[in-house]
Design goal:
It is a single chain. 26% of the residues lie in helices and 8% in strands. The protein is built from 14 helices and 13 strands. The chain is globular and about 65 Å long. The chain has a three-stranded antiparallel beta sheet with strand order 2-1-5. Strands 3-4 form a two-stranded antiparallel sheet. A two-stranded antiparallel ribbon has the order 6-7. It is α+β, with helices and mostly antiparallel strands. The two termini are 37 Å apart. The chain has one domain (11-341, 381-393).
């Protein structure tokens, strides 16, 4: 389990630090100081604000290699394969809970789809690390593989999913080092598909989670057939490997109920606790009460610098004396985050919004969605079965938010990532969740793999069901295109 956070940490100092961090980012104009703050209903409740604050601090905590049952030092059991050492390491722009900057995660498979997540891009990442009394043990950062390649395996014959990547211009000849060994129970053989993904911002995700399935289904039903989104029904419990015995029946029941997927680039999860449990294992390498089995045992018992890299102490994240596990606290934080605050619109931005709708971008980038009247009726409780508070339920209920996304899957043609998460969905390797545009003014690069460095390029690269809108954008005058960009920079 991760470090237990003290409830006595001054909340005002925590939020002051968050505002100070956020104010450094003014990309595309406008301060980011309002990013990363809690919903007003949560901020006014001392108990819920404490849960949110502790979740935020746990979110930014740097995990360690110490075993989960360590007698001294912070418990953690990081890795052995991971993308980063904390949630905030990949979700920090422009404030805690945001997206990534230059960091990417890699996903790969052996033998074709489905592509499994293995965190393999932490070579010489993070700078020097210390391990308790041993002092500095990784002088140049964490050891892991990429050698400058965005995709490709030396000597690999392109697979069906790699063909999608090659069509986008990536070379399969770039050298990539993949972490594997004869003792690796999770990843063996030569990977056949590697894909990069940006970390998604989490602002406003509590409202997305609190939206009824029927609302997303109605959005899809109202869309023209040419751009109609795919509703992916998911059962979060099916994504986990071995829930622990201490998971309550109420939690198992909630996570075992199918819902419309809405989180992740492929709509893999319907709940934030499910999203957290998946990320804790697959991005940081820490097993938990929902994902209790490690992806690999390749480092089991291996010693480096006097430290055992992996021990049989799974699950590592369990419910502690506060009644919450780390994944509960991550959920508290994400569920309470305010949506990105929009900026005032200039006359050009107002014209740009009209053009945005005129060329059909709003067909998938839905402006307004309203949450359910009683989110507590379907949101899962904590691991030990504690339901959301009446204050949180009220803060999430009947809220109209403006994400500029339908949160549905769309066939994006060559813009797909080559990842097939669901064999039951046709051409899943081309399907991507509509990226919410709220807060996009704070992004540095765009699209799921960061291939576009400006908004006009991101729009132009839309393919498949987004091709008509992209063509309509390109047919506009330079002045009209800029007006659409001006509009997007207010979101």
């Amino acid at each position: 389990m991760g470090l237990l956070l003290a409830l006595t940490i001054p909340q005002s100092n925590s939020f002051a630090a968050g505002r100070a961090q956020a104010s450094r980012f003014t990309h595309f104009g406008g301060s980011a100081s309002a990013f990363g703050l809690p919903l007003s209903g949560i901020a006014s409740s001392p108990v819920d604000l404490t849960n949110f604050t502790n979740g935020m601090l746990n979110f930014q905590e740097v995990e360690t290699l110490n075993p989960a049952d360590a007698t001294s030092g912070p418990p953690g059991q990081l890795g052995p394969l991971f993308n980063n050492t904390s949630c905030a390491g990949c979700h920090s722009n422009p404030a805690r809970g945001g997206g990534g900057l230059a960091l990417m995660e890699q996903r790969l498979s052996t033998g074709g789809p489905p592509v499994r997540i293995f965190a393999v891009d932490n070579m010489m990442f993070g700078g020097p690390l210390a391990q308790g009394a041993l002092g500095q043990i990784f002088t140049y950062g964490q050891i892991a593989p990429p050698l400058g390649a965005e995709i490709g395996i030396p000597g690999n014959v392109p697979s069906a999913c790699q063909e999608v990547e090659i069509a986008r211009g990536f070379s399969p000849e770039l050298p990539t080092c993949i972490a594997e060994s004869a003792n690796d129970s999770g990843l063996t053989g030569t990977p056949t598909c590697v894909a990069h993904r940006q970390s998604l911002p989490l602002f406003g995700d509590g409202l997305v989670e609190a939206t009824a399935d029927a609302t997303f289904e109605a959005i899809a039903a109202a869309q023209p057939s040419a751009i109609q989104g795919t509703v992916r029904m998911v059962t979060d419990l099916n994504n986990f490997d071995g829930p622990a015995a201490e998971v309550s029946q109420a939690t198992l029941s909630a996570l075992g109920t199918p819902h419309v997927g809405r989180f992740g680039w492929k709509d893999d999860f319907a709940t934030l606790v499910g999203f957290s449990a998946d990320a804790y294992l697959n991005e940081i390498g820490i097993t938990n009460d929902l994902n209790s089995q490690p992806n690999t045992t390749c480092a089991m018992g291996v010693q480096q610098y006097g430290v055992t890299l992996q021990t049989a102490d799974d699950p590592e994240d369990t419910v502690d004396a506060t009644g919450r596990a780390d994944i509960d606290r991550f959920t508290d934080f994400m569920r309470g985050l305010q949506p990105p605050p929009p900026l005032p619109q200039s006359a050009a931005a107002q014209t740009g919004q009209k053009l945005f709708e005129q060329i059909g971008c709003n067909g998938c980038h839905t402006e307004a969605i309203t949450t359910a009247p009683d989110p507590a009726s379907f949101l899962p409780p904590t691991i030990n079965g504690t339901p959301i508070s009446t204050t949180v339920n009220k803060a999430l209920a009947n809220v109209t938010y403006h994400p500029y996304s339908d949160f549905l899957l769309h066939d994006m043609g060559s813009l797909g990532d080559g990842v097939n998460d669901d064999p039951g969905i046709t051409h899943d390797e081309r399907l991507m969740r509509t990226m919410p545009l709220w807060g996009i003014r704070m992004r540095e690069v765009f699209l799921h793999d960061g291939r576009a460095t400006d908004l006009p390029t991101a729009i132009a690269l839309h393919d498949g069901q987004g091709r008509a809108a992209a063509a309509a954008f390109q047919a506009l005058s330079a002045e009209q295109q800029q007006e659409i960009v001006d509009f997007l920079k207010t979101l």
